[in-house]
Design a protein that fits this description.
The complex is a heterodimer of chains A (about 170) and B (about 375). Chain A has about 170 residues and is mainly alpha-helical. Chain A is about 80% helix and about 0% strand. In chain B, helix 4 packs across helix 5 and helix 7 runs antiparallel to helix 11. The chains are: A mainly alpha (about 170), B alpha/beta (about 375).
């Protein structure tokens, strides 16, 4: 009895996920062909069937028959299925060209704001450090870069020396 | 009043002894959950990671080469090359009995780990070319010298696979015995969501690197979180569910430490990585050249094993498997194991599926 009701519940959930996927794909402008002149998207209408059906299904499980000894386990399983289902829906939506373009635009916007902000912050910091007679972060980075380059040159010399020593050993 | 209440509640369902026992167990678990939650919040302890004893063999700039203690009963040593940037390599030696490195050393492998390190602003000029033709050859040579062996097996994990494959393909003088690609993208035409998001039409990598200098750890984190937006919810749900279990909690703490420690990309490295690997897919097309040397994967002629993870959304099996067609080896094998990008190599599932497979494949050829 319990097994049957869970199976029904999961079937119901699978159907919701499929419907949800279609909704997401429609929103992203892809997937199954949309009805002509699709009405404006209403988030409440989108979520309501999911929530209503989920609550109804659980009410059914909770009120019918003897409670199962592993009610918590079943609840956890239900949540896992829920998350997996949403993960699948989101993955499909994020795999669309529309999403990639939207993300690209979002990041472009971020760069447009971050670039000047970073520059201004750096200038301000450098002015403050110069006022205190201290080395700027650019100067510190420059010194660190020179040390890295010097280390690189020393290692290259070591490599050459190793090669020469190996050749001498092989003679 | 009391009677009315009972009437309103209706008939209570019968309680079986089994149900009562389960309820009692659940109540106990809830007490333990509260206790452990309190400890996590009020008295968080820094998890100890990297339990396998090791020795630093060589250091160049931020990168280090580690050698792990073992009985060294297997003649051919193993060089492990992980990803550069993104995350720290202690995930491969996370905790006792939960460590790939511990498993391999217990099997008798002389194990060397490349730790690329955490690069700073001064390293923004570092490129993929530098990593493949300067750092990696030096570390590989030091590993070989330290082991005293005449040949060496190389295992590339994640981004470490295309990097190490490029290294062995451009350095025929390196005595390569076996090569393993574990969850490493080779054919970037099948690399999943990252491939779509980093496509040249939507992602201007030059603008990024020119503006930011490097790719900050927070941005790397955002990209990976976006790849699996439900990850945090399921992680927290599983934590709550298993919070009564002290072993799970300690494992969670260690993994959580790693999962929140992202590493920035040096700017020029990221530029070359995105352009030449993700956007132009040069490696598998045979169009990649590093320091004037063409990267021809057909030059890899030793035994090759490619390991894909069924649920991997960072390097899906479709981009891992093509290595077998690209190399010139006759002894080549592909296995697809359960798990995701991380759970392929870390965790309980990995100890059952991945580690024994990799160890036995290498043992037979070392």
């Amino acid at each position: 009895m319990a097994e049957t009701s869970h199976q029904q519940l999961f079937d119901l959930w699978k159907k919701q996920v499929e419907d949800g996927t279609q909704q997401w794909l429609k929103m992203m402008g892809q997937g199954a062909p949309a009805a002509p002149a699709a009405p404006a998207w209403d988030p409440q209408a989108f979520w309501k069937p999911f929530m209503d059906q989920g609550i109804a299904a659980w009410s059914k499980v909770m009120t019918q028959g003897t409670p199962s000894p592993d009610l918590m386990g079943q609840w956890k399983q239900f949540l896992d299925q829920w998350i997996a289902a949403w993960s699948k829906v989101l993955e499909q939506a994020m795999g669309t060209e529309g999403f990639a373009q939207a993300l690209g635009k979002q990041l472009e916007g971020f760069l447009a704001a971050a670039g000047p902000a970073k520059k201004a912050a750096e200038q301000q910091q450098e002015a403050a450090l110069a006022g205190l007679g201290m080395a700027s972060s650019r100067q510190v980075t420059g010194v660190a870069r020179q040390i890295v380059q010097l280390e690189e040159k020393v290692e290259a010399l070591e490599d050459k020396l190793d090669r020469v020593l190996r050749r001498l050993e092989n003679r | 009043m009391k009677d009315e209440l009972f009437t309103m509640m209706g008939e209570m369902p019968a309680m079986s002894p089994e149900l009562l026992a389960r309820m009692r167990e659940e109540a106990n678990r809830n007490l333990l959950r509260m206790k452990h939650f309190g400890e996590m919040v009020m008295n968080p302890k820094e998890p100890k990671v990297g339990p396998t004893p090791r020795q630093e063999i060589f250091r160049t700039n931020k990168s280090r080469l580690w050698r792990y203690e073992s009985r060294r009963t297997i003649r051919t040593p193993l060089l492990f090359v992980p990803n550069l940037g993104i995350s720290r390599p202690y995930i491969f030696d996370l905790m006792p009995k939960g460590s790939f490195i511990e498993h391999m050393t217990q099997q008798g492998f002389d194990f060397y780990l490349v730790d690329w390190g955490v690069f700073g602003e001064e390293d923004n000029g570092l490129t993929v070319e530098d990593a493949v033709t300067k750092i990696l050859p030096r570390l590989a040579r030091k590993a070989l010298e330290s082991s005293g062996a005449s040949e060496m097996s190389v295992l590339g994990y994640c981004m470490g696979a295309p990097l190490s494959a490029s290294f062995v393909a451009t350095h025929p003088e390196f005595p390569l015995k076996n090569y393993i690609n574990m969850a490493g993208p080779i054919d970037f035409a099948h690399v999943g969501l990252f491939g779509k998001w980093l496509a040249p039409a939507v992602f201007d990598v030059d603008k990024y690197v020119d503006t930011l200098g490097s790719i900050p750890a927070e941005m790397v984190k955002m990209g990976f979180k976006l790849l699996k937006p439900t990850m945090d919810v399921s992680t927290n749900l599983n934590l709550w569910w298993n919070l009564w279990n002290p072993d799970y909690v300690s494992g969670f703490n260690a993994l959580n430490k790693w999962a929140n420690e992202y590493v920035a990309f040096p700017g020029e490295f990221f530029r070359q990585w995105v352009k030449e690997f993700y956007q132009q897919n040069r490696l598998v097309r045979g169009e990649l050249a590093l320091a004037g040397r063409p990267v021809d994967l057909r030059r890899i002629t030793c035994p090759v094993l490619a390991v894909g993870a069924r649920e991997d959304n960072i390097a899906p099996p479709g981009c891992v498997k093509p290595l077998l067609e690209a190399v010139g080896s006759t002894d080549r094998e592909y296995v697809e194991l359960p798990g995701g990008h991380i759970s392929l190599i870390a965790g309980r599932g990995a100890s059952i599926h991945c580690w024994p497979k990799v160890a036995s494949w290498l043992q037979a050829r070392s």
